[in-house]
Amino acid sequence: MINGGGSLKLFRRGGDMNTEIDEKDLRILSLLLEDSSISLVDIGRRLNIHPNVVAYRINKLEEMGIIKGYTVMLDLEKLGLTEYMCIGVNFPDHRFRNEFLKRIREIPQVTMVISSL
User: Fold this and answer.
1) How many alpha carbons fall within 13 Å on the CB side of residue 114?
2) pLDDT tens digits, residue range 59-80?
3) Is the pTM of this model over 0.85?
């Protein structure tokens, strides 16, 4: 299950799926997607495998580049950030764009910056 009750499903688009990934790896990934702070012990209990095995498998998934990192989801309202604003900006010269992005990221209240070319 992930984010509110979904489940991890892999769809193939060209080529074969990495054969080094098995069902237990997929279940570990699913649990991490649901809660990236879940402990190795909790994963082990839910999958009936030793926490050391869980750690080994997660490390392998990281080394393979399948797990690229971990993230935190914030409740922005509980932080007092209740206003949302979306701003679209066009820059004819990419130098101005880069400077704008650099400066906007320095503002503590800016929680997300999306840029496209």
Assistant:
1) 4
2) 999 999 999 998 888 888 898 8
3) no
Q: What is the dihedral of CA 70, 104, 84, 82, to 10 degrees?
A: 70
CATH class of the structural domain 1-73: mainly alpha
29-43: average pLDDT: 95
Q: How far apart are CA 65 and CA 91, in angstroms?
A: 34
Residue 29 has pLDDT above 70, yes or no: yes
Taking the C-alpha atoms of residue 34 and residue 7, their distance in angstroms, rounded to an integer, is 9
Contact at 8 Å (CB) between 20 and 66? no
Kindly list the domain boundaries of the chain, sorted by start residue: 1-73, 74-117
Tell me the β-bridge partners of 2: 6
d(CA 37, CA 31): 10
The angle that helices 40-47 and 23-34 make with each other, rounded to 10 degrees, is: 130
